[in-house]
Amino acid sequence: MPSTVLLGAQWGDEGKGKITDLISSDYDYVVRYQGGNNAGHTVIHGDTKLALHLIPSGVMYDHITPVIGNGCVVDPKVLTEEMQMLEGEGFSCENLRISCDAHVIMPYHIDLDGASERHLGKHEIGTTKRGIGPAYEDKAGRTGIRIQDLLDEKIFREKLEAALAIKNQVLTKIYGLEPYAVDQICEMYLPYAEVIRPHMAETAQLLNQELRAGKNILFEGAQGTLLDIDHGTYPFVTSSSCCAGGAPTGSGVGPKAINKVLGIAKAYITRVGSGPFPTELKDEVGERLCKVGGEYGVTTGRKRRCGWFDAVVSRYAADVNSLTDMALTKLDVLSCVDRIKVCVAYEADGKRYDYFPMQHSVLYPKHVTPIYEELPGWEGQDISDCKTFEDLPANAQRYVKYLEEVTGVPASIIAVGPERNQTIFHGWESR
Ligand code: IMP
Residue 13 CA: which ligand 1 atom is closest? Predict the structure, then answer.
């Protein structure tokens, strides 16, 4: 019963959608274990380019059962629209299974996400404003509404009434926003319940049964290691466990079921939203990477901050996730620069950090200076048609080998373009 966790090894947007799509045909189940529609996966399937936010990428394959696990937060409106979009493109959502324990994003969560960001002003987190944080706050505060509650009108009304008694006070008195009425939300949400009903399942039980029957699971992480609520650059993080440890808790499958952890890392690095970013390039090279790499968010369209590959981040990601493999994406984008830098350590206040620093204040520009190794590039050489590692220019091979050395993780998949066939398999085995 080989199972793999596939996750972001940086600050998200590493190209997880493409890699999931590539390897998912080897699995029977593709499971989202955290996050909600703050994620944005671009998947190119044949001639169709799709942006998925909530539904696992495996939905495009008939033999795969896509699962939204208990660790996720679900906006029923977005879910319904995404299902309609997929059906419209000819992909059936019939197999989709949604955990009865996943939490529901309510309209007031979305309002509160926006309002709290406005309230933070220049200290804003830079959230996707999809209500993710407030929904997880309610989950931890034990006042959340779960999928199973939404599907029982009596319980839904009761829970909603209790929630609104507080939320309306906060909305009106703290943020000066409009309150909600129970009937108003019921009118919006109960029709979604009927869309969800045929898909609701006890997904932990389902997955464990299927593992026993010899089926394979791919756990599809969203966001990235440095956006993890525990291991990321708090508070500039998302509100869930993006790391490999989130897969068991967010799905109900025990940790022993996992035998591979594939970390997706861009050949450079990007971040959206606020927060420290030691190797950020605020110069023309950063602009070039952004332009050539098309670094604009799938979910919000925001411009991503770009920087050099940070091996300190990657070594940390290797540790906290037990990475067994790395998929290096967008190597082709680096054809736009003549020399390539890799951050191997940080220097801050007279001290060298080879490991991710305990005090995150160290990561800010007024303290940190990245220590770079500079490698020769392959500027101007189009590598997007390379099919094998040996097809790559010598300096590109050297760069990949160097990253394997400084991170301690084999780069067993290398992406040289957005299409499925623009991928070099360099030792990856799903089983
Ligand atoms: P939230 O997840 O919307 O609460 O946003 C919290 C932080 O995570 C912000 O910095 C977002 O930009 C970031 N974030 C959330 N989802 C993604 C993603 O899919 N890719 C990259 N960053 C993300």
Answer: 20
What is the distance in A from the centroid of ligand 1 to the CA of 127?
A: 5
At residue 1, the pLDDT reads 58
Hey, which residues are catalytic here? 13, 41
Relative to beta strand 368-376, strand 339-348 is antiparallel
Bridge-based pairing of strands 217-220 and 103-104 is: unpaired
d(CA 199, ligand 1 centre) in Å: 27
* CA–CA separation, 275 and 10 (whole Å): 13
Where does the pLDDT of residue 41 fall: very low under 50, low under 70, confident under 90, or very high at 90 and above?
confident
- Greatest alpha-carbon pair distance for the chain in Å reads 66
238 CA → ligand 1 middle, Å: 6
Q: What is the pLDDT of residues 241-277, one digit of tens each?
A: 999 999 999 999 999 999 999 999 999 999 998 999 9
Cα 242 to Cα 322: distance, rounded to the nearest angstrom: 13
Identify which of 128, 239, 295 to mutate to test ligand 1's pocket (most ligand atoms within 8 A of the CB). 128
Calpha distance 241→357 (Å, rounded): 20
Element containing residue 80 per DSSP (H, E): helix 76-88
